[in-house]
Every structure is written in structure tokens, then in C-alpha cells.
Amino acid sequence: MTDAQIIKQSCERFISYRYPTTARQELLELANAVDPDIAPDVGGTGELADNLETRVATLLGKPSAVFMPSGKTAQLIALRLWCESSNCNTLAVHMRSHIEEFEEQSHRFLHGLQTVPLGHANRQTTLKDIEGLNPPIGAVSIELPLRNLGWLLPAWSELEDMSKALADKKIPFHADAARLWELQPYYDRSFVEIAKLFDSLYVSFYKGIGALAGSALVGPADLIDEAKVWQQRTGTRLPKMHPYLIGALHGLDTRLPLMPDYYQKAKAICEALQVLPDVSLHPEQPHGNSFHVVIRGDVSKLEEARNRAAEETGIWPFDVIVPSPITGFAMFELVIQDAALDLSDAEIADCIGRVARYMAD
Fold first, then answer.
1. How far is CA 267 from the centre of its chain?
2. What is the largest distance, in Å, between two alpha-carbon atoms of the chain?
3. Can you spell out the DSSP letters for 145-195?
4. What does DSSP say about strands 139-143 and 173-176: parallel, antiparallel, or unpaired?
5. Residue 296 in 3-state DSSP?
6. In this structure, which topology does domain 3-21+258-360 adopt according to CATH?
């Protein structure tokens, strides 16, 4: 166990994400959340799967949905099918998107898709980027929010214009909306209004919703029917998936109603952090429940400064250190969920302020 792991284990309060749990605690929570008489699924079919898929399709106002244990698989299946329907294997995506940076080129090796960049590497996609696409394009995928750039979202009017422009071009528009639940309070639109802008969406159940794993692909019935065939082909229709299904349903019941609280807490934290010397935020006002914190100093000192602040306060500040594009500055991400709700804004500012001071030592 590393020094950081030992220090984190000694902390009882946390700024980012939820409180740590044991495997036993997670399984007990699932057991207590499910009707004791309900049967397990069989290969993703049965009452649990029907309940979840119907619920998500209805929540997003789409004709159909399918549960898959892997979001990466679900999304790539959708993009493959859209490109096949367009008779073009070229996919337009942002170069800092999850598809490009974290999936080992699976779109190319598994599905024969090639990508073209959608917009500039240092900002979220715009209408001008959509208008500037050179055909042929099989499909366009946009990540909402764009995590690697500070969890940025396009303005609502911009997103509407992009959707209309792609509809006019007859290019399928897919949303990598793993964090759809977290972004909804920022747009202050219903899930149906947001989903209406896209031909298909992928949503996650293990991020903000807190399930063990799992996702849903949502869209037209014919696409979802084809996706189910590809789910079988890719080996992601497991013999039993009820722990994931129960977790997703439980998360929708318990954590989905908290998303506005997470967003409001993130805004309050940003306001408290903005007065700290040598601390900046990206963006200055969060587009959801997550954002990047930028601290002046040598990034090599950041982990030591974090650990020192955690030992002094009993509060674990953050996990993910983000590569900084600017020499002399260090970055990390804060994801505001259950744990931060139990901390005052002043306590959080004090902890992050200590990290900044120790970076300057």
C-alpha cells in the first residue's frame, strides 16, 4: 500500500466522489434495495431488465433502450451501426474525447471506423465545427461534458443549432452522455428536451448514479434491435447481470434526485475557492458537478502537498491529477457527489488552500 493510500484510508471525510465502501457494503446495499421475491435476469432479459430499459427510454423520451454492462461497447456499437446506415466508416469526434484518448483505438481495431477531428483540441465543439465538416461523414459523436477540458458543455442554443445543422445534412448525431444525469441541472432542461437533440445516446449507471457497472444505449427501435445482436457478438450479454441492473435502478431512485444538489454544491465550492491565492478554476463557473482546479507550482509537489493537507485536516482532497498544458501550474479534478455535501464550503476551501500553500513552499 502506498503512502497516499494509507493516508486516504485514515481520512473520514472526502471532497471528491462518494465515501469509500467495502465490497461487502456494496453488495449489502444492493440486496437491501431489491424486492426479495424478484427473479434474477437471464442473459439480460426478465423483469429487472425490462423495468430499467423501459424507465430509461421513457425518461429520455426515446422509443427504445438496451442495458449493456460496458459503456464503451454500447457506444461503439451505436456508432458502427450509424456509419453502416450512412455507408461511410468515418466518424467525427473531438480529439480530446474519451473515444480518442482512453479506448486504445477500439473504434478502429474492432469496428473498422476512422475518425476526423471535430473542432479545436482546446475547446468544446461549436456550430462552426459542424458546418466545416467535409463529407462524407458517417456519424458525429459529441462528449457531454468534455471531461479532459474541464467538463465543458456547449451553450444550449449552440447545441440546438448543431443538432439542426446535422439533421439538415442527414448525418446521425450521437451523444456520449455518460454523465447526462449530472449535466441536466446546468442546462435546466428536461431529459426529454436534451435527448431530443440526438439520434442516439449512451448513458452511464456507474458514474454519478453509483451502480457497480453498466450503461444504456437509447435511440430508435431498429437501432436498438440491431445493437442487441452486436451485444451478443461482442460477448457483453452476460448470463446474469442482475447486480448491475439492481444497482442502476437503485441509483436512479436514490442518486438521480441529488444531481441538482451536487451542482449547487459545486457552484458554492467554486465561489469559495476563487478567493484563494494561486488557485484558479476551469471553468470559472462549473458546467455540472465537476471542474478542474489549477494551482501555481511544480506538479511534482502536488501529491506531497495533497497528502500533507489530508493528514492535517482528515479530509481527502482529490484523486485524479490532470496533466497541465502550462509549465509552472498543476491541475486536478474535483467531482462533487455525496461526500462533499457533508462538508462546509469553508472546510473545503481551507483544505484546498493548504494544498496551494504547500505547493509554494
1. 18
2. 60
3. SBGGGTSB---HHHHHHHHHHHHHHT--EEEE-TTHHHHHHHHT--HHHHH
4. parallel
5. strand
6. Aspartate Aminotransferase, domain 1 (3.90.1150)
| Nearest Cα to Cα of residue 308 among 354, 346, 350, 360 | 354
* Cell matching residue 215: 450503461
Question: Which pTM was predicted?
Answer: 0.96
Chain centroid offset of residue 358 CA: 31
Handedness of CA 230, 235, 239, 244 (dihedral sign): negative
From CA 185, how far away is CA 262, in angstroms rounded?
A: 9
**What's the rounded Cα separation, in Å, for the pair 228 and 251?**
24
* pLDDT score of 116: 97
Distance from C-alpha of 275 to C-alpha of 277, rounded to nearest angstrom: 6
* Strand 90-93, strand 64-68: pairing: unpaired
Burial per residue of 139-170, b for 16 or more beta-carbon CB atoms within 10 angstroms, e otherwise: bbbbbbbbbbbbbbbbeeebbebbbebbeeee
Task: Return the closest-CA partner of residue 139 out of 70, 226, 199.
Answer: 199
Give the residue extent of every domain in the chain.
Answer: 3-21+258-360, 34-254
Which pLDDT tens digit goes with each residue over 114-127? 999 999 999 999 99
Evaluated on CA atoms 17, 152, 201, 186, the torsion sign reads: positive
Q: Looking at residue 190, what is its pLDDT? A: 98
Q: What's residue 162's pLDDT?
A: 98
Could you tell me the pLDDT band of residue 1, with boundaries at 50, 70 and 90? confident
Are the CB atoms for 248 and 235 separated by under 8 Å? no
* CB proximity list for 263: less than 8 A, separation 6 or greater: 182, 185, 186, 286, 288, 289, 336
34-254 carries CATH number 2.60.120.10? no
- For residues 289 and 265, give the distance between their C-alpha atoms in angstroms, rounded to a whole number: 8
- pLDDT tens for 88-111 read 999 999 999 999 998 999 999 999
Whether the pLDDT of residue 361 is over 90: the answer is no
